[in-house]
Amino acid sequence: MLLNYEDLSSVKKSVEVEIPADLISNEAKRVTNEFSRHTKLPGFRPGKVPTNIVRTRFAKEIQDEVMSRLLPRSFRDAIADKGVEPVGDPQLQHIDPYIEGAPVKYKAEFEVKPHIELREYRGIEIDEPKIEVNDSDVDSMIERLRDQASSYRVEAERGLEDGDFAMVEISTSGEGVEPETRSGHFRVGEETPLPELHEALRGKKPGEAGSFDKNYGDDANNEKFRGKTIHYDVTLKEIRVQEKPEVTDDFAKSVGGWDSVQQMRDTIAADIRKHREFEALRVKKNQIGEHLLGIHDFDVPDALVEEELGKSLQNYARFLASQGIDIEKADLDWNKISEDFRPEAVKRVKRGLILEAIAKRENVVVSDVEVDAEIRRAANESGRDFAEVKHRLVHDGGYEALRASLAQEKALEFVLKEAKAR
């Protein structure tokens, strides 16, 4: 029974609800009977424990179960005719103690999706990215393939030249710095963190060495070197010369299974165009999203922002792990990272809510077949079983969330189709 309903803000509400005593009593009987059927106590056959003993022995557990059922049910009934869509879980501000034969009153605050007054979303003007693929784009990709297929010859007769790979041993020392020796390599003439290495070794043969000093400022990446002068001793251990294969039909066949150089060039050009078309589509969708954000102003529930922020942080953690970073040991300020990510999370939530409103107005429908197709695609990409993934999504609410996400994407495609190039 709803006693009071209050608008705290456009997205935050407050309710006072009373659960009648007879409803509590009836639910308590059902729960007690369930406990009786499943309780095992010494001296009683399974399922035959008297209800009065069950009520006494499990009084707290029964009360907790009764309220866990009645609280969400009574909350839903209380706001059923208010025309709001709650998000997140209601936060109890007060609840009466459980007294047998008495009603229970409680007060809760909760968030709702905002009501959005849609502005004009048809005919939005956007920039149309120009898509071009020229011979130099294809040549650059072929050069990458040549690099990947290269062999490396050890050079021992001449000195180190630009373009060579230098295999080196580097020793560092300095006041207040623990001496250290390590091995590494670099390509002469290319940008490196230590450009002095190139001058120190250029022209030298394997076995020869060079040295130099480097003054570091207070902003040096290596904390140990900040504000110090570090001495470097560098020994050239080996020179390796890259030998790239010639661009022939045999090369095309070996690196990509193409029949000829021309087929390789045509395929590469088509792939580059496809990638740029995809990128152009992303740019246009971003323009649509930014325009929609610019013409709509409304508050968003913290619950949705926190949910979106959680996804962002999980994705970031997975990215760091993919780079070989131990999340548990890394010195990461997650509070700072969270605050840095928050503005974009708010924008994504707002954009999603606007697109959701457009989808409803345009009667956008996403069928089960479309949802299943998306689940099957994701399952195949991750090597998981489709039926298992779908079952999990259906039971944790993810299935309908995916349907809503696909509806938003359809709404975005609709607005993009209606947009005008400027």
Question: How is the secondary structure organized here?
Answer:
Elements: E1 2-7, E2 12-19, H1 21-38, H2 51-57, H3 59-78, E3 86-95, E4 104-112, E5 125-126, H4 135-148, E6 151-155, E7 165-174, E8 177-187, H5 196-201, E9 209-215, E10 229-243, H6 249-256, H7 261-295, H8 302-322, H9 334-361, H10 368-382, H11 386-396, H12 398-418, E11 420-421
Helix pairs in contact: 1-3, 4-7, 6-7, 7-9, 7-12, 8-9, 9-12
Outline:
Helix content is 48%, strand content 20%.
Summarize the helix and strand pattern as letters: EEHHHEEEHEEEHEEHHHHHHHE
The general outline is elongated
The tally of strands reads 11
Helix content: 40-55%
CATH superfamily of the largest domain: Trigger factor, C-terminal domain
Class by alpha and beta content? alpha+beta
CATH C-level class of the largest domain is Mainly Alpha
Give the CATH architecture of the largest domain. Orthogonal Bundle
User: Could you tell me the mean pLDDT?
Assistant: 93
Tally the helices.
12
Query: In the residues, how many domains can be counted?
Result: 3
Largest sheet: 5 strands, antiparallel
Radius of gyration: 33 Å
Note the beta-strand portion.
15-25%
Low-confidence stretches: none
The CATH topology of the largest domain: Trigger factor, domain 2
